[in-house]
């Protein structure tokens, strides 16, 4: 054994304590840490010939990067849709790295952890036991897996085995959606179906949800043609939902695959107030749900649920690998999702689900929604901002109350200053052609005090932008 490995092994307990202390110190300051920083130009790093050992590497990390760490997992990071690791999930994640197991084979306890966690998640989301669940890295790979399985189904409708013959063997491919997430197009590109196979249907007036009549009209114009429909269960701009119950009813009359992208909107199922938005999703063929969003477990973690395990097996099996056994005879998760090797992603979720239960997640979801509505109400009262859509759940979509011709520049400048100050992080978007800002609240730490601080910050930056714009226009 190399001498440095041997020394680290002897000092392992001290190293773990040192790491715990460092992590604990970071988390104790997460409410005060900036959510973004401007980074310096880092000098190139050189691989040492002789290693310095783990303790010295920890010290070097702190010296080189420590002052630049940000509170991405903190209570005022409203960019993208990002949760923050719960204490229980952090413990599970640390243990997942410690035991270093690749869940798959029934003979391993990691398999029991995985199947048990997926069962808990089905209970949390009120999904039938008929859905097979698999962990993947994130919503993108979950959508990829669901659509890959749908592609196999589509091939079968034409008498083609896509897994064996390739995507080119399928003709006249159509994937329909109204307001799909960008990862849907990315998945279609990776699957060889092409972004051009995506047909965008009209939405309801003032909404991002599909106009069901437009879908019916498309079906009428393509009688008997099988297709894939990708439903939105929580759009990124306004958390709008397609009418899944109506889509499920259409499935009884027409031949199509229903994929539901519920990356964070699926958590509506945990709340009696909002679960009606998912009525009918138990009839979907595949469902995407992201764990590192509203479940508040660390990156990277998501789930794909499908009612067609045989089709998944046809796509993802490790055929011909004798050392892995017969895929059809011995269930192994590696034959139902893209990755053969991965960490025990289910363990942080298991810890968090057991630690906080259904009540904990119900309270978390409803608290985030209430705080998002509080933010939206404050923006509506302000003369500097304009809400672009109702606050349906956890996302607030708004813009600056400014001249339309200058709005794009003002929004860009506003976000640059906001991010530079580091109190809150929000992301740019475009809604119905209007340059906009979106704030997504899915963090378990966020409180009313954070919302008060955010509102003050938004007003301050907006006033600065207004003053600066007036100077520029006068000159």
UniProtKB/TrEMBL annotation:
Recorded hits in InterPro entries, A to Z, give: Aromatic_deC (IPR010977), PyrdxlP-dep_de-COase (IPR002129), PyrdxlP-dep_Trfase (IPR015424), PyrdxlP-dep_Trfase_major (IPR015421), PyrdxlP-dep_Trfase_small (IPR015422)
- What cofactor is needed? pyridoxal 5'-phosphate
Q: Name one GO molecular function term.
A: transaminase activity
Signal peptide range equals: none
Keyword annotations of the record: Aminotransferase, Decarboxylase, Lyase, Pyridoxal phosphate, Transferase
Q: Which family does it belong to?
A: Belongs to the group II decarboxylase family.
Q: What is this protein's name?
A: Aspartate aminotransferase family protein
**What organism does the record attribute this protein to?**
Chitinophaga chungangae
Q: What is the lineage of its organism?
A: Bacteria, Pseudomonadati, Bacteroidota, Chitinophagia, Chitinophagales
């Amino acid at each position: 054994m190399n001498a440095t490995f041997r020394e680290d092994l002897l000092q392992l307990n001290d190293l773990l304590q040192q790491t715990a202390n460092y992590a604990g110190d970071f988390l104790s300051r997460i409410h005060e840490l900036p959510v973004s920083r401007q980074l310096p130009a880092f000098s190139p790093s050189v691989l040492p010939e002789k290693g310095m050992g783990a303790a010295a590497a920890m010290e070097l990390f702190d010296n080189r990067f420590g002052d630049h760490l940000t509170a991405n997992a903190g209570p005022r990071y409203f960019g993208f849709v990002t949760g923050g690791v719960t204490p229980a999930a952090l413990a599970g994640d640390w243990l997942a790295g410690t035991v270093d197991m690749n869940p798959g084979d029934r003979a391993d306890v990691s398999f029991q952890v995985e199947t048990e966690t997926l069962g808990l998640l089905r209970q949390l989301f009120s999904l039938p036991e008929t859905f097979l669940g698999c962990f993947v890295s994130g919503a993108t790979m979950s959508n990829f897996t669901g659509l890959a399985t749908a592609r196999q189904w589509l091939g079968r409708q034409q008498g083609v085995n896509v897994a064996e013959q390739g995507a080119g063997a399928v003709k006249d491919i159509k994937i329909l959606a109204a307001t799909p997430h960008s990862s849907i197009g990315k998945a279609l590109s990776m699957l060889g179906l092409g972004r051009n196979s995506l047909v965008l249907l009209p939405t309801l007036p003032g909404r991002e949800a599909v106009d069901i009549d437009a879908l019916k009209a498309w079906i009428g114009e393509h009688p008997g043609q099988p297709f894939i429909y990708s439903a939105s269960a929580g759009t990124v701009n306004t958390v709008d939902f397609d009418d899944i119950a109506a889509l499920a009813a259409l499935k009884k009359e027409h031949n199509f695959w229903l994929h539901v992208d519920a990356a964070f909107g699926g958590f509506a199922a945990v709340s009696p107030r909002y679960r009606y938005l998912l009525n009918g999703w138990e009839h979907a063929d595949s469902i995407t749900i992201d764990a590192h969003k509203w479940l508040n477990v660390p990156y990277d973690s998501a789930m794909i649920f499908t009612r067609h395990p045989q089709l998944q097996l046809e796509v993802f099996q490790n055929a011909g690998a004798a050392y892995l056994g017969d895929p059809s005879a011995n269930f192994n998760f590696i034959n139902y999702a893209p990755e053969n090797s991965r960490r025990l992603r289910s363990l942080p979720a298991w810890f968090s689900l057991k630690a906080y239960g259904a009540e904990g997640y119900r309270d978390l979801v409803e608290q985030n929604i209430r705080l998002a509505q509080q933010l939206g109400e404050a923006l509506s009262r302000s003369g500097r901002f304009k809400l672009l859509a109702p606050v349906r759940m956890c996302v607030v979509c708004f813009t600056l109350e400014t001249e339309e011709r200058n709005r794009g520049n003002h929004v860009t400048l506003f976000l640059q200053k906001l991010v530079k100050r580091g109190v809150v992080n929000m992301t740019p978007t475009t809604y119905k052609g209007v340059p906009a800002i979106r704030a997504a609240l899915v963090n378990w730490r966020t409180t009313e005090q954070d919302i008060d601080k955010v509102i003050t910050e938004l007003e301050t930056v907006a006033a600065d932008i207004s003053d600066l714009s007036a100077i520029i226009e006068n000159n």
